[in-house]
Amino acid sequence: VTLLARGDTLDAVRRDGVRLTRIDGTHQVPVQVTGVPDGLGPQDAIFICTKAHSLGDVLPGLAPLIGPETCVVPMVNGVPWWYFQGVSGRLQGRAIEAVDPGGGLLAMLPWQQVLGAVVLITAERTAPGTVHSTNPLLLVLGEPDHTEHPRTHRLAAVLRAAGIDARVSTAIRDNVWTKVIANLTSNPLSVVTGATLDRLYSDPDIVPLVRKILHEALQVAAAYGARFPVDLQSFLAQGAGMGAVRTSMLQDFDQGRPLELAAIGDAIIELAALQGIDMPVTKDVIALARFRSKAARACASSPHASTTPIRVSQREAHA
Ligand SMILES: NC(=O)C1=CN([C@@H]2O[C@H](COP(=O)(O)OP(=O)(O)OC[C@H]3O[C@@H](n4cnc5c(N)ncnc54)[C@H](OP(=O)(O)O)[C@@H]3O)[C@@H](O)[C@H]2O)C=CC1
Ligand SMILES: CC(C)(CO)C(=O)C(=O)O
């Protein structure tokens, strides 16, 4: 296994290996790490673990690692860029502008080399090379064309041997919708409110908004033929049960980093529009999250800002 990293993460992993803290303690593992992919040659599998909006920057640099048999697994949230590939229908072959402007990702990598992944893990990077994760490590893998393929099972077995509950789905879009809906009802709202998952899914002031977004998203999922059981009470209980966890988007907001709103928000609105469905509440919440992020980032980069909204938000998030 080779880890490709940059900057502080590269230095930290080179020095200390990767560190994962869980309730049973810290697992620290040395790993071969590099900042440049040249010389490694084609890989069996590549897990891309960046934010969705970084895929376009990262993928071209991975070209030396991708041979004809290499399987690329994007471990990212949101609507995947390959959503309309490998299945038939009116929208077959189409690119999703919000996540793949101009179809650049589609052109770079044949969809047959992509393996879909839905990450049902909560994690927070607490320092370069160090991640804290409290919930079960659950992951679903599935082929974009919904077929059964030996490579999917081989990769799932490798992950299971490493302690990750990796499952194989022959209807990965159903899993994508389940996760997209979890993200859509929590990530943008977490930025607007500063709340962690336990509060987002239980606070009487926030739950009505969660319910409205859920309702809008379920209409879109149904229009795309997604099949998965949803019961509001268990949806809320499951979300709240994740605990006082900051969504990845709230972590980005608190750090002044760009938000993953294109993949987790805009792409779903784009899919909704293709089916003639409006998502008024979802749009408003996404707009508010985007505004908060813009305002905080502008304030942080202003030389005159004494107390930035980013600091206020960090206090709120930890209160
Ligand atoms: N955190 C969570 O609980 C969950 C996250 N997800 C999803 O997983 C994905 C990853 O999220 P998360 O782990 O939180 O993200 P982080 O921002 O913590 O990590 C992203 C990593 O990608 C690296 N990176 C970005 N661009 C490049 C590049 N060009 N070259 C090399 N490295 C690069 C970053 O390095 P650097 O530090 O140098 O910028 C960073 O180490 C997202 O799609 C997220 O939505 C899914 C489930 C839960
Ligand atoms: C933790 C969870 C499930 C919240 O929606 C997530 O995927 C994220 O933080 O991005």
UniProtKB/TrEMBL annotation:
Q: What protein am I looking at?
A: 2-dehydropantoate 2-reductase
- Family membership noted in the UniProt record: Belongs to the ketopantoate reductase family.
One Pfam family in the UniProt entry: ApbA_C
Q: What does this protein do?
A: Catalyzes the NADPH-dependent reduction of ketopantoate into pantoic acid.
Q: In which pathway does it act?
A: Cofactor biosynthesis; (R)-pantothenate biosynthesis; (R)-pantoate from 3-methyl-2-oxobutanoate: step 2/2
Please list the reactions this protein catalyses. Answer: (R)-pantoate + NADP(+) = 2-dehydropantoate + NADPH + H(+)
* EC number, as in UniProt: 1.1.1.169
Q: Which residues form the Ketopantoate reductase N-terminal domain?
A: 1-144
By its UniProt entry, which PANTHER family does this protein fall under? 2-DEHYDROPANTOATE 2-REDUCTASE (PTHR21708:SF45), PROBABLE 2-DEHYDROPANTOATE 2-REDUCTASE (PTHR21708)
Which keywords has UniProt assigned to this entry?
NADP, Oxidoreductase, Pantothenate biosynthesis, Signal
Q: Which GO terms describe its cellular component?
A: cytoplasm
**Biological process, per Gene Ontology:** pantothenate biosynthetic process
Q: Which Gene3D superfamilies match?
A: N-(1-d-carboxylethyl)-l-norvaline Dehydrogenase, domain 2, NAD(P)-binding Rossmann-like Domain
Can you name the source organism?
Pigmentiphaga aceris
The protein's enzyme class: oxidoreductase
Give all residue intervals belonging to the Ketopantoate reductase C-terminal domain.
Answer: 172-291
Instruction: Look up keyword Oxidoreductase and say if it applies.
Output: yes
What does the record give under GO molecular function?
Answer: 2-dehydropantoate 2-reductase activity
